[in-house]
Design goal:
The protein contains twelve helices and six strands. By secondary structure, the chain is an alpha/beta fold. Helix 3 (79-93) packs across helix 4 (107-114), helix 6 crosses helix 7 (163-176) and helix 10 runs antiparallel to helix 11 (257-280). The chain is globular.
Length: 309
């Protein structure tokens, strides 16, 4: 636990993609009769669907969800904006309930709510525009190569297949002359609620099978058709992620459909590995088997009880 538990509790459920976070979060929300706050960087965009694995409408009718279908890809949300949004939502829900469940695999979004965002220098618009032009002309690999030279310590914790994250880190390096990682101080902001973090794990083979199965199901549900409808927005930042970029490559004629499916599965597994690396460095997360709901419940009850005495 990274903060003393108070009467108002935020239970944060984290883990790799496809590990089973949504199912556990729903069960916890029903038990505590509370809402769910998503910490997923793509589920908030109403134009995106299949590739984001959003909780379906039936789930959302049973349990109120925040930060799902709440924004448009035309106005991408930053981590700082998510921090402000999430804290505002929590202030409101805690007027009526003592618990809220936050669930998601976006490590930075979890960090800004639980510990706050580091103070990052303002970036001149022309620097960002230049990097975006370089991305368009030279590709992401060129930016990643430069970032590796300027900030090698950051690479382990950064999603190198996310152009927005790479540009953000690189622009700070270029403007300040210092590695972006030096600004990630880890200084925590105090919060008016207690925080308990729960991590879900599975055996790697099991997790990878679930990822492959989920991707097959998404394709069956119409992932390629969804990407085709979104193709005109392919340069919007929310679409420059795993799940869409691989299909856009197929649509651009870079490879065939079978190769697109292989890349979808491979890149999803790589993303899961990066998520586990990120969350694995957080000592405040208590880890459980993804199907062990009872142990999770026992841990939450004991933690809250111990802190209340």
């Amino acid at each position: 636990m990274n903060q003393p538990v108070s009467r108002k509790i935020l239970v944060i459920v984290v883990g790799a993609t496809a590990v089973g976070k949504t199912a556990i979060a729903l069960k916890l929300a029903k038990h505590y009769q509370c809402s769910i706050l998503s910490a997923d960087s793509r589920q908030c965009y109403r134009e995106l669907g299949i590739a984001t694995a959003k909780p379906d409408l039936a789930m959302r009718k049973k349990v109120p969800h925040f930060f799902v279908d709440s924004h448009s890809i035309r106005n991408p949300i930053s981590a700082a904006e998510f921090e402000e949004y999430a804290l505002d939502i929590l202030n409101k829900v805690y007027l009526q309930q003592d618990y809220c469940i936050m669930v998601g695999g976006s490590g930075l979004y979890v960090k800004v709510v639980s510990a706050g965002l580091d103070q990052i220098p303002d970036i001149p618009a022309h620097i960002r525009m230049d990097l975006e032009n370089r991305l368009e002309k030279l590709g992401l690999a060129s930016l990643v190569c430069e970032l590796k030279k300027l900030d090698p310590d950051l690479l382990e914790n950064l999603d190198l297949e996310n152009p927005r994250r790479v540009i953000r880190a690189l622009e700070v390096c270029l403007v300040t002359g210092k590695p972006y990682s030096t600004f990630l101080t880890g200084r925590k902001k105090s919060r008016p609620f207690g925080i308990i973090k729960v991590g879900l794990i599975r055996e790697r083979e099991d997790l990878y099978q679930r990822i492959d199965f989920r991707m097959d199901k998404m394709i069956e549900q119409g992932l390629f058709e969804e990407a085709e409808n979104l193709y005109r927005f392919r340069h919007e930042k929310p679409l420059q992620t795993v799940g869409y970029q691989e299909v856009f490559g197929y649509m651009d004629g870079l490879y065939d459909r079978q190769e697109a499916i292989r890349l979808l599965k491979r890149n999803s597994r790589r993303y899961a590995k990066r998520q586990l690396t990120w969350f694995g460095k957080d000592p405040s997360i208590h880890w459980f088997r993804a199907d062990d709901l009872q142990s999770i419940m026992n841990y939450l009850e004991l933690t809250v009880s111990a802190a209340s005495n």
